[in-house]
Queue: 3 jobs
Job 1
Amino acid sequence: QMYVGTTTRGFNIFPPSDQVAHILRKRNGLLDDDVWGLLEDKKHRLWFGTFSGANIITPDQKIYSLIPNPNDRNSNRIDPIIQTGPDQFILAGDISGLILIDELKHTIEKIGLKEGLPSSDLFNLFEDSQGLIWIGTLNSGLILFDPQKRTMRLLNKAFGLSSNHVTQVIEDPSGKFWISTFGGIDLLDLKENTIRSYTIAEGLSDDRPSSILLDKKTRLWVTSEKGLNLLDPAKKTNTIFSIASGMPGNGVYSLLDINERIFAGTEKGLTVLEESEKPLNGSSEIIWNLRTYGRPQGFYFLNFNGNTADITHTGTFWWGIIEGVTVADSTVFSQDPKTSPVQVTGLDIMGKQQFFIEPELVKDADTLWGENKDTFYLKGNFNVLNTDRQRGIEWDSLSSGFIPENLSLPPNLNYIRFHFSDKLPQSNGDYKYTYILDGVDDKWSPVTAEPVSENYNNISPGYYSFRVSAKKGAGPWAEPSVYHFRIRPPWWFSWWTELGYLLIFIGALRLWVRYRSRRLLKENVLLEQKVTDRTTALSTSLENLRQTQSQLIQAEKMASLGELTAGIAHEIQNPLNFVNNFSEVNTELIEEMNKAMDQGDIPEVKEILKDVEMNMSKITFHGKRADAIVKGMLLHSRASSGQKTPTDVNALADEYLRLSYHGLRARDKSFNAQFSMDFDESLKPVMLVQQDIGRVLLNLFNNAFYSVTEKKKTAPESYQPTVTVSTKKKNDMIEIKIRDNGQGVPKKVIDKIFQPFFTTKPAGQGTGLGLSLSYDIVTKEHGGKIDLITKENEFTEFIIELPVKPVM
């Protein structure tokens, strides 16, 4: 730091960075230096809760004050502040109670003991996912406040909490609530009405936590006077961070989770905890890197207030401290710690420490000592040619530590060991090292305190990179240092021998190619003859397949006709019964009329004639109904001409639904199901190929009744088979929906149901052509589309959309 003294304005302190942290205090416009509440609202205004009331600072740096009781200075303390709506805020204090502010309505409402508040010593506020306000008190437990209904519920020690002193409440993704008290941590499940407690007995460092936080991995962070706890309910683990772990102090009071980094405000500065993405030693143990920020980074006051931390939309950090508010730019915490990477300082080759020297460095006055320091060489006694280079050791240059750059070793000198050292400006502690030789090691070495690697022997020829990293105490691992070297191959693997091998291989390959080419020419002639024979056979098989397919399609149509005929036979029986019954009744009425005429009872004759006339009209009605059914049968059995005719879609769906139902009843007397119709009565006749659409509807109705019948065999007695058909007009489309509550279509076969010959029915009960033909009729002949919505064992719904124009 730099201290710059002036003659009249005191002195200024400049930390060694451009992002200077500064202090906002009472002399800057705050009501009080004791700040215990902090919030940035949706309009980017900052709210401060102090011992003397609340301050609001606008983006243009204007400061406003809110004093609950101007006449009583002792009842103006504001601690927590939350925003519950675009213009709604709730403030609380240890004496003033709740203060509800609605800027839109220009109202400020106070709720205290007189208004039914169980306690006025309020310490914290939390709004849950249901809009309820959880109020922690200093002596009464939790108050559950509904701001809409203005109702309150008290949860205290008698309810099951560990203590009536509640410091914070948070809600996890499952809807459970974590509550920190002066008795430990409580996990409250309102749905199950259960409470589970975590105390020192379960591994907490202290039973009086001051703040809690759920991170992105739903792990619980707990602050206390005796360290920072990390609880992982999923893994059932508890990690304690304290001075022994690298924290500046054991007292931790404030927490923030920003970009998966935990910002912990302690009694001696701010510590940022970051989880290492990949431990260097390859173990499953989670490694945490701790960085502490204090006075050297511009934090003049280091003791943080509890639950008083926030980050604004601009990335500025704000913390309540003993002497006001600390403000810091986010770039202060984005800088990586300055750590010097570990350096390779020496090499052992073939079991002996190797010293490297360039011949040109040897001067006349030089004295060179031997490896064991028991021999020295003077001028005239040192043979410059007897150097490492004479043994085949090569390098480009030597570093300042006399370590060769781009070291190249002959194949017989492939037994190596590395020495390294480090100087890390981190927290106190011993140095620890880990290393890996790429191409030899599969994972990083176990952590060791020895600044030397294991011996690597019989290293194969190739290029290698030796990586080593170090850390000091609980500090972060330094960026690994990399040392590159090479083991040269023996002469039989040199480039010129490999070139000779390559030329020999190319010559042999060329002879083999010529030999194979001649054989392939002969085989090609035989292959062409076989292809001609196979093509002729395939053409014959294809023609047979087309004929078989035509026969199967015709069979499917005839099967459809048979089902329709059975339904018509049953359906036509109803109007014929009416015709027969009314004919018999008319015969009896005529006999009565003759008797009345003989007796001259003219009024009786007229009454009988009215009954005869009514019966005749019913005979005519049911006769026409039977005639329409027969005509429909003839239309269905007749080959489709493809000519579109005006068609009443509702009547068509009604007719074929009944025909399908009665046809199934005719074949199986035990068959029973309900069907219903929901038709759009506003539909007008449209141009359709009536016979083809009728076939489509009949096929879908038959499939629906089959599905509900099969489900009825295994379903409970309460199950009622139901088939529903509905019509609806959608812009220029006619939509027909056919839904059943049967077995549904398995997910794995949905993509296949419209393929020819695919069926889910047992062998002998389906050809697999019904849905395929229906798909072609709807999409190709009418330019529409047919979709399927289904859920296995619940329902199936076919949706037909026909782009038809109404009859003019």
Note: The chain is about 25% helix and 30% strand.
Job 2
Amino acid sequence: MFSTGIKGLDDILRGLRSGDNVVWQIDRIEEYKDFVLPYVSQAVAEGKKIVYMRFAAHEPLLERSEKVKRYELDARGGFESFTTQVHKIITEEGHGAYYVFDCLSDLLQAWATDLMIGNFFMVTCPYLYELDTIAYFGIYRNNHSFWTIARIRETTQLLLDVYRRDDEYYIHPLKVWNRYSPTMFLPHLKKGDKFVPITDSADAAEVLSYIKQKGVNNVKRNLDYWDRLFLQAEEMGKDPARSAEGEQMRKLLCRIMMSRDEKMLSLAVENFSLAELIDIKSRLIGTGYIGGKAVGMLLARKILSDESSLNWQGMSEPHDSFYVGSDVFYSYIVQNGWWKLRMEQKTEEGYFDAARVLKEKLLHGRFHEGVMEQFQQIIEYFGTSPIIVRSSSLLEDGFGNAFAGKYESVFCPNQGSPEQRYMQFAEAVRTIYSSTMSEDALTYRRQRGLDKMDEQMALLVQRVSGSYHKDLFFPDIGGVGISYNTYVWNTKMKSESGVLRMVFGLGTRAVNRVEGDYPRIAALDAPLMKPYANMADVKKFSQRDVDVIDLRKNLFTTKKFEDLLGEGLDIKLEYIAIKDEEVARNQREKGVKGRDYWIITLDNLLANEKFTGTLKKVLKTLEENYHYPVEIEFTVNFASDGRFKISLLQCRPLQTRGLGKKVEIPRQINKEKLFFSSEGYFLGGNISQPVDRIIYVDPASYIALNQSGKYDIARIMGKLNKRINRAEVKTLLLGPGRWGTSTPSLGVPVSFAEINNIAMMGEIAFPEGNLMPELSFGTHFFQDLIETNIFYVALFPENDNVVFNTEWLKNCENVFAELVPDADKYSGVISVYEAKNTGLKIMSDILSQKVVCCAK
């Protein structure tokens, strides 16, 4: 038994026990302090280790003292970072410590929701119990929802009510775990050093009625603090006399719901009214932030609707999206009992290993009943319209970190019974939650110094933009727009004019590197100018497959364009394709008549100055408001009269390095010194950079491998990548076809985490093996290159203006066997050349569109 420092209280409670967490319900901080001080004085007298967790705005509970270890914590960094700090301190302090925590209710100032205070207590209290500690916590009475208090009551060992009535002091034990006496759970009146139980029925009824009455005045007590806050906001919005209060509330709501990123928060405060924030909350499931992707979408739509020259309402599709708050993600982890594993994942040793375990568990958890009911309401609202559940994490789509393609987004065809549609939706949510623990996402966070930051996953639930085509559903156009074009392939183009990357059908093929298929890239100042000239290239670099939602089969799928044409669907061919006269002529010569053949070029759409002018205006308007280049995702649907409707799905700051200083490339280069040269087909602006090492995958040797061998090459690349110190060894990676493809026959199937330490990348065309680069400007892959500052070049050795001199590599020592001694059988496929002493340098110039790699 241990003492509270107050003999009368020890008598009531039968003393404290190892592992006890004691929660005091109070009206004022002084009441909590009255019990903290004797407890600490007693612990000091007994030589106990005392730890004070200081995080609240109220006056300190304890003065600074050598006998008390004090930790200053900041809860504004978010639930995860705060809880992780506390967990780490508890671990370091070890068994048997005595703890004092500031009043937990003050955490509402940082988190604005009871839910997360309940979650904090649920994960902290059991850990303290495990380590045989004794801990005091305070909470303000009637400040929290009944549900939160119920969770605290369920988790703690002792819950004590403290209150004053006139000059009298009462304690009412509500829970005392594993201890009992006939009078223990009665109210007790303080008389000197003693606490006297109120045993007389009349006195007890009077005292308890008084306590009850103190809580009756708050009729909204069953609501979370979060909901009460928004109810106050509604009242302020209706009363013109409270406009000053409303303005402060507007800023507060932006801070707790929109973003913690200062730049995004500033944009939100600048653009959203109080009424608009209340409307956003009305579509929010749970509490917390709506996440970067949702903020970007809403912010862009608001900016455009305020631009009078655009008539945005007349040309755009309205949105009716929902948002799953970021707090739901952590609650899902806490309520399924995985927080300890989450804390293990936050350590250096468990960062990847524990993540693999948690990733699997996240796919199979249960949601809280209240969340399940709100999920069901979303399903009922959308009916059987296809929807997409998109990641919208706190750090996503902000300034500096796009997280492009790092987290999942899931199409839900949304067909079948309500039960089937709910199961499909819940599975989509779990899939996205699980993707937070993917190796790519974890590597991305660590590489950018974000691995210790609070990264909660919110969700954006959107109606899929498009229309029904018999049993299929898809938009006419899906695309990406970028306000600053760093991939200009002609000297007449200007980077500031922007560029589009578009496909027919769902826009997934515009944002991902797709196999054997090419979207249409159009510079907005020369929309009909292609990066290639002849008809053969037009066919080669065109789209052949279309992503659609199959409503009959209830799945997202890919269809051949020619198959769609054969199904007699209502397709606006006049906007998206041109006739392939050569194939038609050949077929007629073979006796096949009466059929047209088409090539997707989007030429007629891009020839429409109203369309290209509108997209250019949209991008420039957003760029001017963001004070930064932007990237958007959008769809286009055509009405029967030819008018188009744009749906803006996403907007984020574009990560870009700019052109850089002009580089003078030597006019005459000794052939023996030249490794490669090309015109166009590069990304990364003007550079002049030394090459210290070359990793080269020989195209002919690679294509000769079986599929297992090709995957081996990808894993070997990962091993080599880990051995690169990016700051000291500037590495050029060269290989056939597409790096990062999911199809080994089209290139080396590495993940981005397996090549993220390189400085320069080259994709080599190898027609004999049908291996072709894919100029990925505007894709998630492109974003990774830009954010990681990797220069990219595509080499087409068969072109007249390209030199690729592999004989030059004989000037360098091949150290592959030394670096990866257990991969000797692939020494003819991969080579690692040390080039530091050769003076090799790669140079590029945007204006002349030349790139050269040569030695001194």
Note: The two ends are 81 Å apart (CA to CA).
Job 3
Amino acid sequence: MIRAALPVDDKLPELAAALDSCGVVVLLAEPGAGKTTRVPPFLALRNEERRAQKGPGAGGRVLVLEPRRVAARAAASRMAQEDSSEVGQRFGYQVRLEKRWGADSRVVVLTEGLLLRFLQNDPELSGVATVVLDEFHERSRYADLCLALLKEMRRELRPDLEIVVMSATLDAAAISIYLDEAPIVVTPGRQFPVESTWLGGNAVMGRLSGKKIADRMSEVLRGWLPDLDPSDRGENGVLAFLPGAGEINQCLGALAGVAESAGVELHALHGSLSLDRQLRATKPSARTKIVLASNVAETSLTVAGISCVIDSGYERRLSFDAGLGLDRLELTRISKSSATQRAGRAGRTGPGRCMKLWTRQDEAGMELFTPPDVRRIDLAELVLEVLAWGCSDPEAFDWFETPPAESLAAAVNQLLALGAIRGKNGRWLLSDVGREIAKLGMVPRLGRLLIEANREGALQSGARLVTLLSERDLFRQHRHQSHHRQQHKLPSVTLESDLADRLIWLETAPGSELDPRRRREILRRSEQLESRLRTRKPSDATRRTPPRDSRRKTTKDGDSNEWAWLAPALLSAWPDRVAKRRQVRSPEAIMVGGRGLKLEPGSKVVDAELFIAVELSAGARGAQSVSPVRLASAIEREDLERVVPEALATVDVCYFDEAKERVKSRREWRYQDLVLETRDAGTPDPEEAATVLAEAFRRQPHRVLEKLEEAEFQTLRLRLELLAGARPELKIVPIEEARLIDYIAACTPGCRSFADLRKLSLAAMIRAELNPLQAKALATEMPQSVVLPNGRSLKIRYEPGQEPTIAARVQHLFGLWQAPRLAQGRIDLRIEILAPNQRPVQVTTDLESFWTSTYRQVRKDLRGRYPKHDWPETPPPPVTLG
């Protein structure tokens, strides 16, 4: 076959020279440069020449990492085509469920997880001379980890191993620094011009704004269809980018009829489709086509016959919520680099155009690059792989980009819960179970599930369940399964389990209900898992001795239960997802850790008090949010006692009864921190009761402060506040609320209720803290009472926000011409002058003015009404007090 020249061809000598000098190189190649199909064959030929010159020990195979299955298969096919050989001979590939390469293959294209397995199974990569990491800008967790392992391998085991990192959009400088100043080779691409348009302030934007993404795209494509010519030999197709399979399926349904009428092919392209269906969407076609694609078509893959891209501007991106311990699949705006990659798909074979369904203003706010996986997803699998590699401290591992500390901590906690690691103080080792999980190369939870199913004698069912859980839920569209089961007379499942329900469905559903090809693929994958465990000798920790009688146990009706393996297997994989229903038959529950849950409608878990929440969605953010449970399976208390007895405990707990405002005690039966059962435990422990009461009081102090029964304390508090303000030199600390709360909280020993706290003698405590000078000033300068000239003692009334006040009848004030003053004359004492009926006739701090100007009128008004009282015409002269 005659190969067309590609831009990267001219850079291959420079690439070889860089490898000769350093052994590592970063290739920054623009779209269309031909790096994916030209660099690996060149490296293979170079290795063969070395082998011919230096003997069998030189040279070796080239491994190429591709981020997706369809890209791996397409790359190997293109290299074989240009070599005029069959795929699987000189150029081969290996993806999930499919291996096409042999001993003579010089280039093997692998998906990321498989390259990681190659590295873990053979840390020296025997027979491999070069590893190429393609499309590294996608920064998947596997690509980042593989780069780190390859770097360490070169340093410790294989200094001769060559590494090539390639991408079209990449921070090449950062990778070069990480790889010890690796050379950077830059090559232009073969990109035809692409004319981009954005939504603007026009009728189109007004028509589309406010609509759902799928509806918006469907409307745009309907308007585009009349411009498509079915007879153009498939050269002017449309590639429409949507966030995921849900939106793609909605568009398929909306466009199927009009596309068929227009004679246009309509294809879906996303990761959940079979490999054949993905390849069918990418291949050349005799007719014009519309391809509705997710990110799978963004890079590393050329979709033939495309001249137009319509971009929704959105993607679904996994983000790890460390507080919840879950990956959230969130709808989010794409980055600017993603938008550039998507638009470039229209200019691969000729001039193209791209319609961006957002405004230029929206684009200004987009991120520059998509955040890498290690910054946003669950890292339990990566941490397990790091430990399996031999590094005991994940934080000290030489990451290309160190993950967030909270994500690493969450990963370690998950592995501890699964029993996959042991150790402390940041130094961790794999347990026997952890080593088995690592050998399986699976998500840790699913690996633990499979191992436990095998121990329980249910390997086939466990492998099928793991395979189902590894895929998108194929049965969510069949929400009304009871209807289907009745219609097709499918076996009923006595166990309340959405998982058992799906296993039965997989085995018995009619072909019309489940794509036969998908079913064969699932069964084939599960058979591969079975064979991997059957051929592996289990470690002591994963061998059942003696075997549990759990594969089949007898139910209350005397029938054998073939589902008895399910609860132990799920408990081993999700020990932190045990939940207890809040009320009988209520869909709401609470999970270990305190998270609120709600079973989705249609769940088989209807009556069971306890269940395992296998699949959650994180729900809305916030402390009070509730997570919807998509898949659940019932368990019983006996399952906890048999499988995880170490997580069960019985404790006596002091608690505060909010309604009765007192501390009580109850006995709790717990699984971790989940309360399974409670009973009254009698009188609480005095020390614990004091602590609980103090905490309850501090949470809601006003329930006590507003009802304090000690009047003396309230008066004392006001006297001290006034004295502290008037005489700052005394350095009296006012009794503010925070200080008062501390006083009361310190008095909880011996108390059991808020009522007890309201009766505390706080005045004596406060007086005890005053020094002698302060105490004397309080008694003499801010007294509780004053003595009048007639010897009568009047109590001073201290009230918030008012001057200190005394109240006395006119006759009791005879001889007093100057109102007493407090705090060495700095505070006026207000006097309420009362008539004989105790009603005020005047309120004043100036008695002399009262006697000289007001008294005569008061005498005139009151003498006739109260003749028995003394009403001298002239008030008595002043008498000196004290």
Note: The chain has a mean pLDDT of 87.
